[in-house]
Amino acid sequence: MSFYTEIIKADTRFRSLDTVRDLALLEPETRAAVEGIIADAKQLHRIDLIVTETYRSAERQQQLFQQGATKLQAVGVHHFGLAADFAKLVDGKASWAGDWSFLAELADRHELIWGGNWGAPGAKHSFVDSDHVQRCALADQRRLFAGIWYPDVHYDPCALVRSTT
Question: What's the start-to-end Cα distance of the chain, in Å?
Answer without folding.
Answer: 34
